[in-house]
């Protein structure tokens, strides 16, 4: 399946163009601060609330950039992707705004709530078996039949340029940041941070936060080449996917360090954020705070931007209530 | 116990003075909007997020106004109140900021989490038995011993003037509101809305939202005099207290209507807000949305300001997970 990875890497001019293109369809999300969190960490933290973003996550930035960058001829055939997470929701939302079809290949075993949410945004689901072989075969069939443009969840240069608009806004909204930290899964958001900050604020440190239980980016970073795990298992379910060549390009060149946290540390940081900051966010979003609490010496005295990546969580299954 | 109810009713000049006085100690809370909620209700809704307020609720406005309005001599003796809810937290926070003692009388049966939270803000708890007789006796003893200034949770004119700063900010932040809606318990927030809006925007309708299971304000409003219930029982536990003479003054004169919602309607609206708007809020805050959904004809086509009053909720006991 053609995944646009062969397109040229995005430049900062692509980010500026992406920002203009997607502005009508996204929120300029607010920044929250918390005196309590500052005291607790010894840092000055600024939380960029992409959980308040359209479709509930930053992913809508990249999805809108891909969808609204298509020519009318291309767009007429629609877009397609495989995802059971926020990218599927976001691409369905973006396609709906443009009035074109969005085909999503999802394992038949995906939670009904996820399927309902994708359909709620107008996405057309084609189910596959829960295996890579089946997913690729079904996706190839869908793409063949529709001629749809494949928008990869994170390795697509258009997606990286779209995600990069988040840190661009962040720099406009908060002066004098010393560091930015975000969770890392496939690396789309972190690559966007690298792209923006290396161009407009190269002194700002970039930290990626990852679950210990899915620490393939951490091990890749230390080894100097991509290491992909087969089936990592973590409560931060948005972070299970591996780096790919385009995101690896940015991560390997511009990330300051990758820090990890245990499952319990992630759950504790998630609960603490809900309790003190009164925001609903996904487990993935708690990984940065968990790593800040675990490594206070790295962040003490700094002005740190923390990206809260999404808020699409199952309210019936909160991790601190499990068991 | 002397409860300051004999002080003169607050004027809009008191509100302006209160706003200046408390600004250093409170957040100017943000406004959130949701396309989804607008489609669902047919109205244009603006949510004023006092759940992001200091100490987690709007109550800190009134508490700060009372605490920072004291002379140094008065302040030296501290403040006191009886409450096991947000007023206790807020008064403890305000007193802590001024560096004076805050005595709180709480039933010994109050949840440990509430006691911990009050102590976390520096409040000194004196326990009483869970009865009005015991509470009054213990409170009188505390006041006698300390000489502390009694700050009533809602009937105190200084508290009403403080709460009134919320709707003043709201009018500055959103143009052309047709109506404002907030939950009603003792009536402090609604009285504040009445005080502000009757002075600066008398055309704006004021709706109060109340649980059916604790509808004493609704019945008072219809009857034309205060009706107090003995022990109402609702999941919206911030709204169990009755109106008193000062809040009744404002409610009876300026409220457009009082609307009610069932327990299930409140729970559904709460869950919907968490799921769609990604904010953590108390059950009480869901009563306005529940009544808007129940009475769409009242709000359709209007620009409606909804006050989300607080976010101090027990994350281990979410109402849709009960049983």
UniProtKB/TrEMBL annotation, chains A, B:
GO biological process annotation, one example: D-serine biosynthetic process
Transmembrane segments: none
Record InterPro entries: BHydaspDhtse, TrpB-like_PALP, TrpB-like_PALP_sf
Keyword Lyase belongs to the record: yes
The EC number(s) this enzyme carries: 4.2.1.-
UniProt keyword annotations, A-Z: Lyase, Pyridoxal phosphate
Ranges where the Tryptophan synthase beta chain-like PALP domain occurs: 23-310
GO MF, one annotated term: magnesium ion binding
Cofactor: pyridoxal 5'-phosphate
Family: Belongs to the serine/threonine dehydratase family.
Protein name: Phenylserine dehydratase
Originating organism: Roseinatronobacter ekhonensis
């Amino acid at each position: 399946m053609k995944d646009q990875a062969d397109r040229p890497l995005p430049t900062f001019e692509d980010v500026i163009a992406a920002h203009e293109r997607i502005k009508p369809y996204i929120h300029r999300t607010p920044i929250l601060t918390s005196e309590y969190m500052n005291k607790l960490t010894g840092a000055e933290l600024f939380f960029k609330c992409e959980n308040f973003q359209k479709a509930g996550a930053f992913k809508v930035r990249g999805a809108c950039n891909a969808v609204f960058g298509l020519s009318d001829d291309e767009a007429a055939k629609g877009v397609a992707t495989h995802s059971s997470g926020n990218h599927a929701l976001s691409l369905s939302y973006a396609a709906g705004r443009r009035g074109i079809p969005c085909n999503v290949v999802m394992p038949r075993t995906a939670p009904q709530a996820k399927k309902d949410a994708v359909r709620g945004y107008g996405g057309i689901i084609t189910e596959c078996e829960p295996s890579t072989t089946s997913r690729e075969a079904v996706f190839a069939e869908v793409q063949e039949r529709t001629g749809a443009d494949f928008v990869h969840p994170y390795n697509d240069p258009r997606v990286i340029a779209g995600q990069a608009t988040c840190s661009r806004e962040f720099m406009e909204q908060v002066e004098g940041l010393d560091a930015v930290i975000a969770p890392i899964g496939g690396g789309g958001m972190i690559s966007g941070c690298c792209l923006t900050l290396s161009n407009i604020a190269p002194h700002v440190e970039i930290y990626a936060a990852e679950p210990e239980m899915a620490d393939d980016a951490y091990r890749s970073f230390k080894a100097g080449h991509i290491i992909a795990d087969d089936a990592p298992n973590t409560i931060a379910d948005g972070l299970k996917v591996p780096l790919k060549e385009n995101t690896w390009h940015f991560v390997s060149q511009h990330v300051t360090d990758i820090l990890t946290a245990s499952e319990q540390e992630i759950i504790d940081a998630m609960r603490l954020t809900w309790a003190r900051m009164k925001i609903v966010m996904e487990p993935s979003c708690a990984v940065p705070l968990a790593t800040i609490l675990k490594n206070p010496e790295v962040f003490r005295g700094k002005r740190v931007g923390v990206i809260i990546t999404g808020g699409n969580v199952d309210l019936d299954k909160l991790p601190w209530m499990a068991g």
